[in-house]
Specification:
By secondary structure, the protein is of the alpha/beta class. It contains six helices and six strands, in the order βααβαβααβαββ. The chain is 32% helix and 17% strand. α2 runs parallel beside α3 and α5 packs across α6.
């Protein structure tokens, strides 16, 4: 007899702001830390989740400091499970580059990464979709139930959304503000809904970003 997969709700949150975010620089897998605004964003998110009565049975975070620290602020006292598969896309030697200095080939990849090959040294979007998809499958097929939190990064979060949707669905053009909250309802081993939770997201209502 095949065991029925347990239903669960997966909350996806981008980390709080860092100085590289504020300075509009490609961050990738640089191990940057939260700035004061990023700490406050995480605190506000924690307050919103607490007010909504949302508690987590498991908390995962990318192994990069900005994600780990965001998770610690949101879920003080909880075990934070480091998860390398939800790290940000690697931009290789381009990490630290100011947005204003991004050339046309790199912009083309950023805006349509499934059709445009990345410049040399940058992780492919297919690699990112594969590793985040593996993480997602493990969560869906696990014995976990209730609310599960994953703190990740802007492009990695889009890749998880891509896996949940099963198609592009405009995810690569979707603005992802720091500490934005998405909720995926998982039933019978598949995502039945994916929504952006504005009431839980400190900045998402005023987000006009077209980059990350």
């Amino acid at each position: 007899m095949v065991n029925k997969l347990k239903d669960k709700t997966l909350y996806l949150i981008r980390h709080g702001e860092t100085d590289m975010n504020a300075r509009q620089m490609l961050q990738g897998q640089v191990n940057s830390i939260l700035n004061e605004n990023g700490i406050n964003e995480a605190r506000e998110t924690a307050k919103s989740l607490k007010k909504a009565g949302i508690e987590f049975s498991a908390v995962y975070a990318s192994t990069l400091s900005r994600a780990i620290d965001t998770a610690k602020i949101i879920c003080p006292g909880s075990e934070i499970i480091p998860e390398p598969r939800i790290k940000e896309l690697s931009f290789g030697d381009y990490e630290g580059l100011a947005y204003k200095d991004i050339d046309e080939p790199l912009w083309a990849f950023i805006h349509d990464p499934e059709k445009v090959e990345p410049p040399s040294g940058i992780e492919s979007i297919h690699s990112l979709i594969a590793r985040t998809g593996e993480f997602l499958r493990d969560i869906i097929e696990s014995d976990l139930s209730g609310n599960i939190l994953a703190v990740t990064h802007g492009i990695a979060l889009r890749a998880i959304m891509r896996n949940l949707k099963g198609e592009d669905g405009g995810v690569w053009q979707t603005p992802i503000k720091n500490c934005v909250v998405y909720k995926a309802e998982i039933k019978d081993g598949r995502a039945v809904s994916l929504t952006r939770e504005d009431s839980l997201s400190p900045e998402s209502k005023t987000d006009t970003s077209k980059v990350f």
